């Protein structure tokens, strides 16, 4: 990983929310101590069940939420750093009073960086302003960042973008409601691409689409990556889609990172018990395999993130759980070939 | 297909339309199928293909603007479309039950789970309240809800999505119907919970012997659950056959396109082959085959005439001109 510079590095990222329960205030640890990196032009898939914090990760990266703690480095520049220090074993360093030892914290104004980092949202119906024409929707980021000199240039840029994502130029003056789901998603993607970003967070970007349209949009994501060299954080709950589009895949459970590996490696050699059951739970569109495969059916539901089990959050549903799992959260350790797993027992 | 004594549900040439401000929307356009005892029939299609409307037409729970305009739905020989509303009320739940996609909105939030289960039992049987309560607890145990005695006192919002779907299944099955219609039963659920629910449905089918109609857009769910599959597009059946026939020898251009466009284990590193274009507008149906505007092999005849269903193998029918191309060309001498 070291020889190529990462476009995005995240270390010890935490995002807590305060939730009121009656008179009591509780902390919801949506993202708890997550570290990963994305290389330029790479797709990192992020999977997990609903409520595991995968969307929060995407939003926190773009600072749509202010992170509780951690460090976000984009293209070599530190965008946010809460200042905690960690030793070589990734344990937090405490000072004499038992408080975390801190260096100076950083929190940069994001506006200039929004040009480099963009987002495509899940719902193509609610993420486009119904009172704006397509031209204005795609043109808005250009306006915000003053990326044109004349009206003609703005229009040309917009039409180029529309062509890039496969929309007709004559659609420019239409409103969002006049388009189908797949076309709306293309508008959302064109808007994200308008500022020529190096990194795009795709939050369930194909989940709301029908299968035949989904394939069109997945292919478009891949073609745009080949053409423009943009890196994706591809967040989705559909494992087959993620496996198809991603170079590497990260698996989250209740705010914690469980496993990161190359897509093929994760597919052929999953290690974490959660990944195993997640993979085996995916219904395979092939009757022969379906007849012979044995699902590892997990007992029970995901625990409430307000009431997290101690230690490893997966232990309540895990076949391999031991006493040690209840005591401490295993660290994400390299098992070779960039395959990181957080599990005591496997 | 085998002798008719096993046939529970026989749908013949069903047409359902919605009468909207913009005109008549023909959501279902002549669907026929037979469902046998203990079998699972899968209906697969994209949004707007008419798969849910087919299910709602059978149950007669269409929205106000919708009406079955033609066809028969025979349940053990009786045309249930001729039933009065009160006969239908008796029929629903007792003979055929339905579970819906969204367990969050299909349970009543102001009544306890137990009350809603008992209500179904009391409506359809002569059981006393105490017996109904016992039945509710028995059903919850059957669908794998832990601590059923305390669960019956809880309200739907206190349960998780998977638990709610289990309650829905318990409610649908508490009068031991012959047919269970499952309309996208796992779409709103996470994969691990989806696996639990699918496993549960298969178990219950073995135990209770009901037939299932599985309506879904997920080819994975279809592959693992169904004996027979209907592929729908634009309100019509474009292909039907056994799971193996549909997945390994697809004969309709739409089915082929659908299978090529989904990510699978064996095409991970290849490009997907999407179906071009967008799904059809039901207000503006083409004269010929509904799929032909998106079909890359469309011929002249496809634009003009809707093909009938032709046998393409044992227990395997498709309505696509491509399969009878030679026959057609020899007759008409057209391209």
TrEMBL record, chain A:
It holds the Pfam family oligo_HPY. It comes from the Bacteria. GO terms for biological process: peptide transport; transmembrane transport. InterPro entries: AAA+_ATPase, ABC_transp_ATP-bind, ABC_transporter-like_ATP-bd, ABC_transporter-like_CS, Oligopep_ABC_C, P-loop_NTPase. One of its GO terms (molecular function) is ATP hydrolysis activity. CDD domains: ABC_NikE_OppD_transporters. Belongs to the ABC transporter superfamily. This is ATP-binding cassette domain-containing protein.
Automatic annotation (TrEMBL), chain B:
PANTHER family: DIPEPTIDE TRANSPORT ATP-BINDING PROTEIN DPPD (PTHR43297:SF2), OLIGOPEPTIDE TRANSPORT ATP-BINDING PROTEIN APPD (PTHR43297). GO terms for cellular component: plasma membrane. Keywords: ATP-binding, Cell membrane, Membrane, Nucleotide-binding, Transport. PROSITE patterns: ABC_TRANSPORTER_1, ABC_TRANSPORTER_2. SMART domains: AAA. It comes from the Bacteria. NCBIfam families: oligo_HPY. This is ABC transporter ATP-binding protein. SUPFAM superfamilies: P-loop containing nucleoside triphosphate hydrolases. Residues 9-259 form the ABC transporter domain. It is a peripheral membrane protein. InterPro entries: AAA+_ATPase (IPR003593), ABC_Ni/Peptide_Import (IPR050388), ABC_transporter-like_ATP-bd (IPR003439), ABC_transporter-like_CS (IPR017871), Oligopep_ABC_C (IPR013563), P-loop_NTPase (IPR027417). One of its GO terms (molecular function) is ATP binding. Belongs to the ABC transporter superfamily. It is found in: Cell membrane. Its main location: membrane. GO terms for biological process: peptide transport.
